[in-house]
Design a protein that fits this description.
CATH superfamily of the domain at 41-123 and 167-228: Gamma-adaptin ear (GAE) domain
Radius of gyration: 25 Å
Largest sheet: 4 strands, antiparallel
Number of helices: 6
Order of helices and strands: HEEHEEEEHEEHEEHEEEH
CATH architecture of the domain at 41-123 and 167-228: Sandwich
Helix content: 10-25%
CATH topology of the domain at 41-123 and 167-228: Immunoglobulin-like
Strand order of the largest sheet: 1-2-3-10
Amino acid sequence: MKNLRAPRVSRGDGRRSTTQSAFLLLLALAAAHPLHAGYKAKPWQVRALQSYPSRLTSEGVTIAAEPLFRDDLAAQVFDKGDIVTRGIIPFAVAIFNDNDFPVQVDARSVELICGDERYRTLMPGEVVTRLYQKTGKGVRLPQPIPGISLGGGDASREPLQDFEQKFLTGKIVPPRGSSGGFLYFEISIKALRPYLAASQLYLPDVYREDDGSKLIFFEIEMKPAVEAAAPRSAK
């Protein structure tokens, strides 16, 4: 009986085989998990005052707050479907000004309070980093295609621009007008709904924008907004 020998594979053939395997793996993974799906900013605007259950009025200013405490609620405003799952709770803040002077809220000093626990907003860059880089686990491809990974890469400019544009900081509310924006709280609580229902949004720094004088602080109960939240849509 003749000895059967496996065909010889040159080093060059081995490199080509590895390259082809890596390329095929890249195509297969990219089909299942695109490298960049394309973030699209969604429009958002302040609604009518009466549509916000959680609100407080003082010195001609009404401030309303609305926590987007489920992924489906947050996804109505931001083009990402797992924001709350990743521990970020966007809070919409709407400000209505019945005065003859403009007003402004210092977003950096706003606190979400629940018992002894206090949270302050993350900056938009911190939010995008947590949403797009927190896991940091990409699928590494074999050499000789170094540096290619799927997932865990740098966040694109589009989500950062969207989270910055919707951030409450810098929003000036004109006389007899309204404006608003978002705060981004990092909260890792499983029973999120009852936790937020027992919380208050504390806004200590509300100013007249014309002369810089400070108005009274606001402390808004979150329970009405949480209880009035739209039910989860059936799939």
